[in-house]
Specification:
Layout: H1 2-19, H2 24-39, E1 41-50, E2 53-61, H3 62-66, E3 80-82, H4 88-95, E4 99-101, H5 118-123, E5 130-136, E6 142-152, E7 158-159, H6 166-200, H7 206-226, H8 231-246, H9 257-260, H10 268-274, H11 277-283, H12 291-302, H13 344-359, H14 370-379, H15 387-395, H16 397-406
Antiparallel strand pairs: 1-2, 1-6, 2-3, 4-5, 5-6, 6-7
């Protein structure tokens, strides 16, 4: 009885934690981490439902993570599969019925689903016990599948998932689904805002802003770990940054089509007009009454500042765009922010934004190859970018490249 009460209190605590997370990707990471703690298992994955397909969206594997060098993350490719009863995850998505399989290599011939051993063969991993649960909202809508792999006993031996634990994990999955639905709504609203900017500037696509948000969140986490920040703070800040970074160029809605859609080089006068978009974007968050608003303001306003102080818009009043009287340059204009005068969030997004621009196809250029992109970032360290952040970003090259595959441009689909 005492153990059940502890479990209930833990479920309530986790429910409160998940409702505070705003971003879908950060939430999936938290859901999988906490589900694996509850079930004491080695690995797991989350699949999301998109129309009649399951999308492999997130995975964790302690055995494979331990084999990586310190500071490196487990990389994985997303893939899609039709929802059908032929796969374990597909069966659970289709029927809404949890499956607790003691050993996927010993399935009964009577079941309609089968286990695909190709991943095990490719990685030398051995999948054994698998617990697969539907992620269903309060209204009964199935939005995904939670799959937990290789339950461990106290000695670290792979064992079946205990049947008596499943009701608690299933309750957790239901709570997680409600939180995911709420986070999905938040991202949908943000992407609708971005779509308005996309109508004005074709470069501001949902794929672009999702990539910039993801690069920024991973760069921040690597920086924060290097600075020994507490895990709770890292998760909190990463969640806020992931969303705020997506809104970095929202101020472009205030720039005319003649400038945004001009195929050739801008005139000096047009470029000066274009440089107004950081202030326009910052004004949207000018009455910041939350941490998210405050971070979004810093990013929108300062992501074009430079480490050497030669960026824009410099020290200006957010509401008027006028230079601050005590922060004037010799020419009477606003002095540019430099080095640590630029908020950390903006220094991070500046790198993420340029990295994505160089790596992407534009009407006026082909995508650069990754060696050229990282060389350009290194050349700009100490002038355009924070040199420490460039070094950390470069150390995460494989991770950043993998993010591009997760959010491809429409023409790459």
């Amino acid at each position: 009885m005492h153990k059940d009460r502890q479990r209930l209190e833990k479920l309530i605590e986790l429910g409160n934690l998940m409702t505070r997370i705003r971003d879908t990707d950060i939430l999936m990471e938290t859901i999988l981490t906490e589900a694996r703690k509850l079930s004491n298992c080695d690995a797991g994955s989350i699949y999301r439902v998109e129309e009649d397909e399951l999308v492999f969206s997130y995975t964790q594997n302690d055995t494979q993570q331990r084999a990586l060098p310190p500071g490196k993350k487990l990389l994985y490719s997303t893939f899609r599969m039709k929802i059908s009863s032929q796969s374990i995850a597909g069966y659970v998505a289709l029927t809404g019925t949890p499956l607790n399989i003691p050993d996927v290599y010993q399935l009964d011939d009577s079941v309609p689903y089968s286990f695909n051993p190709s991943y095990d063969q490719k990685t030398n991993y051995r999948t054994g016990s698998v617990l697969t649960l539907p992620l269903r909202t309060a209204a009964g809508r199935n939005i995904g599948v939670l799959q937990l792999i290789n339950a461990l006993d106290p000695a670290g031996k792979v064992v079946p998932f205990p049947e008596e634990e499943i009701p608690f994990i299933r309750h957790f999955a239901n709570t997680a689904a409600v939180a995911l639905e709420r986070a999905d709504m938040t991202r949908t609203i943000i992407l609708r805002m971005i779509s308005m900017a996309e109508l004005r500037d074709p470069k501001e696509t949902g794929a672009h802003v999702n990539r910039v948000g993801a690069y920024s969140a991973e760069l921040y986490e690597a920086w924060a770990l290097a600075h020994n920040l507490p895990e709770t703070q890292i998760k909190h800040d990463k969640d806020l940054l992931r969303i705020a970074a997506m809104l970095h160029d929202v101020g472009k809605v205030g720039i005319s089509d003649a400038i945004l859609k001009k195929p050739g080089k801008l005139t000096d006068e047009e470029y000066e007009t274009m440089k107004e978009h950081p202030v326009i974007g910052a004004k949207l968050f000018g009455n910041a009454d939350s941490e998210l608003d405050a971070i979004s303001l810093d990013i929108a306003l300062c992501h074009h500042e430079r480490w050497d102080g030669r960026g824009y818009p410099g020290f200006v009043d957010v509401l008027t765009g006028s230079p601050l009287p005590d922060k004037l340059a010799p020419n009477g204009k606003a002095r540019g922010r430099s080095e640590l005068e630029i908020p950390l969030w903006a220094r991070i997004v500046a790198i993420a934004d340029v990295y994505d621009a160089l790596s992407s196809r534009r009407s006026y250029k082909e995508p650069w190859n990754q060696d050229m992109v990282f060389e350009e970032l290194r050349k700009s360290a100490g002038t355009q970018f924070d040199p420490e952040l460039v070094e950390i970003f470069s150390s995460q090259r494989e991770l950043m490249e993998s993010i591009r595959g997760k959010y491809p441009d429409p023409e790459s689909d």
